[in-house]
Amino acid sequence: MVYAIVAVVALLVGVAIGYFIFTRVIKGKYNQMVESAEKEAEVIKEKKMLEVKEKFINKKSELEKEVQQRNQQLQQSENRLKQREISLNQRQDELGRRKNDLDQQQNKIDNEKKAIALKQEELGKMQQKEREKLEELSGLSAEEARNRLVESLKDEAKTAAASYVNEIMDEAKLNANAQAKKIVIQTIQRVATETAVENSVSVFHIDNDDVKGRVIGREGRNIRALEAACGVELVVDDTPEAIVISGFDPVRRETCRLALHQLVADGRIHPARIEEVVAKVKKQLDNEIIETGKRTAIDLGIHGLHPELIRIIGKMKYRSSYGQNLLMHARETANLCGIMAAELGLNPKKAKRAGLLHDIGKVPDENTDDPHALYGAKIAEMYKEKPDICNAIGAHHDEMEMQTLLAPIVQVCDAISGARPGARREIVEAYIKRLNDLEAIAMSYPGVTKTYAIQAGRELRVIVGADKMDDAETEALSGQIASKIQTEMTYPGQVKITVIRETRSVAYAK
Fold first, then answer.
1. Number of H helices, E strands in the chain
2. Which of 18, 86, 312, 485 is the most buried (most CB within 10 A)?
3. 12: which residues sit within 8 A by CB, 6+ positions away?
């Protein structure tokens, strides 16, 4: 028991001693750790303070540099402004000096003008005195002396000028004929043209003769409708694989030929279809006329023509003058004019333009009594052609006074183109004029809508409006036209006048 108590006491003492030793050791270590932490914290604090101070110093130096730069910029700006102010002051001073100099010069000029005026006045007085003395000595007034001197100089100048002019005229006559012939011959030699003579028939070729019956139609209604729509005569005879289109107007013949081509190709040939196709062909032909005019202008290098002038040039393809195709004549004249103008040192493009347009008065859209040259000049002036071009057009038959060198060039080249062998036939022109006169006489009567001269002028077909006259008036009209033709025209053989009055009723099933 005692041992047990001793053991417990020893254990307790040991535990107490151990706890004491343990607490002393732990406390010492804790104190050491605290001191070490405080030292480290102090070191870190001092380090951070140093870093903050360093950053502050850096920022301060940067700000100082920036402030210094801005101060330098401000100083430079101030210096520049001062320099500008100094230069402006200098300029102002210089302007002031110049103004003073100008004022002084103006004053000097004014003084000199006054002095000159005084001297001129004195000189005038002296001249008057001298004139009076001379008049006293000569017994003539100044006006009489001047007139005598002028008259003597006039007579002397006239004599000298007359002899000089005679010498020049003699020399010019010797050289002008030879030079002119040389230029004309060279121009003709440099233009190669083909001879083209218009005729009054066209031939429409067909694949077989069965087509002829379809073209004629039942009781001839198709052929009559086609002749009435186109204004030509169709000759369907024993000629194999051909239908002859007779008419003096090439546009009408070409319209009929193209319409026949479309009708035969389509196969539907009846009066209503014929009228439809003819109307369509006329529009196509109008477009082709415009294209022909454009190609002609481009080929000749002529630009800036009014569209209406281009259309008139295209119409020349279907017109003839004394049997010569009018478009070929105009092209030939234009080329001749260009070459001759170049030989004479003039503008060849302007000469070509005048040559191409010189006969536009021969294809009028309206009836006119003016000669074709004057009418062509009016048309050119209407469409803003230049005055020298208009004058050349109007003067190429001496119906207007020539004002520029273009006019005689166009006149000569027109004569060259028309006078060369095979170019023209007077008979054809007279024939076409007679047919035109026939149609014009019939058209002069009221109620007449269309007139066509066919069979080479041996028949005149007149179409009247059914609502404008009755059958009795139609019969009387044919006699009136025949009587007027007999009294006003000269023609071979006889002319048959056929007046057609037709009533149509059209309806559409929709």
1. 14, 8
2. 312
3. none
**What is the chain's Cα-based Rg?**
57
SS3 449: strand
Burial environment of residue 396 by CB neighbours within 10 A (0 to 12, 13 to 18, 19 or more): buried
What is the 3-state secondary structure of 227-290?
HHHHCCEEECCCCCCEEEEECCCHHHHHHHHHHHHHHHHHCCCCHHHHHHHHHHHHHHHHHHHH
Tokens 């038959």 locate to 397
User: What ranges in 444-506 are assigned the alpha helix state H?
Assistant: 471-488
Say how many C-beta atoms besides its own lie within 10 A of residue 290's C-beta.
15
CB 113 within 8 A of CB 107: no
d(CA 149, CA 146): 5
Using one digit for the tens of pLDDT, what is the confidence trace for 292-336?
A: 899 988 988 888 888 899 998 888 888 776 667 788 888 888 998
Q: What is the pLDDT of residues 407-429, one digit of tens each?
A: 888 888 888 876 554 444 444 56
The answer to whether the CB of 363 falls within 8 A of the CB of 372 is no
State the DSSP H helix or E strand holding residue 325, giving kind and residue range, or none if neither. strand 324-325
Q: In the predicted model, is pLDDT for residue 168 greater than 80?
A: no
HSE toward the beta carbon, residue 197, CA cutoff 13 A: 11
Q: Are 326 and 316 contacting, i.e. CB atoms less than 8 angstroms apart?
A: yes
- What local confidence, expressed as pLDDT, does residue 344 receive? 82
Count Cβ atoms within 10 A of the Cβ of residue 383 and give its class: 0-12 exposed, 13-18 middle, 19 or more buried.
middle
